[in-house]
Design goal:
With 157 residues, the protein is of the alpha+beta class. The protein is 36% helix and 27% strand.
Length: 157
């Protein structure tokens, strides 16, 4: 799907797995900044490429004057009673403009695919930005590492 906004000359394009892998040299640096700042060991840029190549996730890019300026990686999450679209990574420049221009077509795309909602795990700063676009906080993720704990007694398990 291509969405063209003439006044800003920016296009949103959903890439096939092959197209995304072929353009990975332009996409990877955009995702690398996201992984470095916002991902906590769950995956890295190479994992995103492998998941894309296998068809497990989908990648969209925004091009401005032919150059990729934003990249978005998402997956469909099947819950027992609904279908969610989980955004794994969104990186690049012009994020505010990207959200303003492409959230509506992305929502339409997700709806046409049968999704009930779009979800993402974000930092507090991104939470504030996403709230301006209509996202709501539903859960607060918490994490307790079970690796390397001195007080964990493996015998009691």
């Amino acid at each position: 799907m291509v969405v063209l906004f003439e006044e800003v000359e920016m296009q949103l394009v959903w890439l096939t797995a092959e197209e995304a892998c072929a353009a990975w040299h332009d996409i990877a640096p955009l995702f690398a900044r996201v992984v470095k700042k916002a991902v906590h060991g769950e995956y890295d840029v190479d994992d995103l490429r492998h998941m894309t190549a296998r068809g497990g996730i989908h990648v969209g890019v925004a091009r401005e004057n032919g150059k990729i300026v934003m990249a978005l990686a998402f997956e469909f999450r099947h819950y027992p009673k609904c279908l969610g679209v989980n955004v794994l990574a969104m990186g690049g420049s012009r994020l505010t403009a990207f959200m303003a221009q492409f959230l509506s077509p992305f929502k339409a795309f997700c709806l046409s695919a049968g999704a009930d909602f779009i979800e993402c795990s974000v930092s507090p700063a991104m939470e504030r930005l996403h709230r301006r676009s209509g996202f709501e906080t539903v859960y607060r993720n918490m994490r307790l590492s079970v690796k390397g704990e001195d007080d964990v007694d493996s015998q009691s398990i």
